[in-house]
Write a structure and sequence with these properties.
Elements: H1 2-50, H2 56-71, H3 76-91, E1 99-100, H4 101-118, E2 124-131, E3 137-138, H5 143-152, E4 159-167, E5 170-177, H6 181-185, H7 191-204, E6 208-214, E7 218-225
Parallel strand pairs: 2-4
Antiparallel strand pairs: 1-3, 4-5, 5-7, 6-7
Helix pairs in contact: 1-7, 2-3, 3-4
Length: about 230
């Protein structure tokens, strides 16, 4: 009985130990697999949300360039360069998780130039910016959603205000525009902003503030901690 007991002890203990180690490694591998799946799902969702940026902006810009080619041909080359720069930003630079703030601001500057030309005589645009550190990193194509939404749904003969400020690594973007009740009732009025909020949650977790207020004007406020 003693020999049998010693035999079982010497056999079962290593067997149980190695079985436990094997289960542990399997558990760790499974956790790594789950984390990898979550990461891939996150990246796919971010790409999908980024793809929701409306392509009508490109068509509007091309129409603006066409008009200037007929009326002011000397100014057309600069507009083509601006459009080319923005296409490069959307197609290539925006694939990075973070980009220097000055690249995103340049993209916004070009966009605002086209909007000022396109809405000349129709809307009043007030665009202000103050950037302390242009090398801070920001997720690409976040601000354009707010700004584009303000132009897309503003009423005619109204004022559109866009303000971008960065100080000590904190960026604030404020957009205000008048709206019509018809636009207010459309479901698509908030689709772009809902997609933006999903991106903010995925990218910035709790390091942001995003509010929408609606009184006499429609106001969207975004605050990001860039560092």
């Amino acid at each position: 009985m003693k020999c049998l007991s010693d035999y079982l002890w010497q056999t079962l203990v290593p067997l149980i130990f190695f079985s436990f180690v094997w289960v542990l490694y399997r558990f760790i591998d499974k956790q790594e697999e789950v984390e990898q799946i979550k990461k891939e799902h996150l990246e796919m969702e971010l790409k999908f949300l980024k793809s929701q940026i409306n392509p009508h902006v490109l068509f509007n810009n091309l129409n603006t360039i066409y008009s200037y080619a007929l009326e002011k041909p000397n100014e057309t080359p600069e507009l083509i360069l601006r459009l080319s720069d923005n296409l490069k930003h959307v197609l290539y630079e925006s694939n990075a998780k973070k980009i220097p703030l000055h690249k995103e601001i340049q993209f916004i500057d070009n966009y605002m130039t086209f909007q000022e030309l396109r809405t000349e005589g129709v809307n009043t645009i007030v665009y202000t910016k103050r950037i302390e550190n242009k090398n801070n990193q920001i997720a690409p194509l976040l601000l354009i959603t707010i700004i584009e939404n303000a132009f897309k749904h503003s009423s005619l003969n109204s004022e559109i205000s866009v303000s971008i400020n960065e100080n000590n690594g904190v960026l604030e973007c404020i957009c205000e525009n008048d709206f019509t009740e018809k636009d207010n009732d459309l479901a698509e009025f908030k689709i772009g902003l809902k997609n933006l909020e999903k991106r903010l949650k995925l990218l910035y977790n709790n390091d942001y503030e995003f509010t929408i207020t609606q009184n006499s004007k429609y106001k969207v406020y975004l605050k990001l901690n860039l560092i």
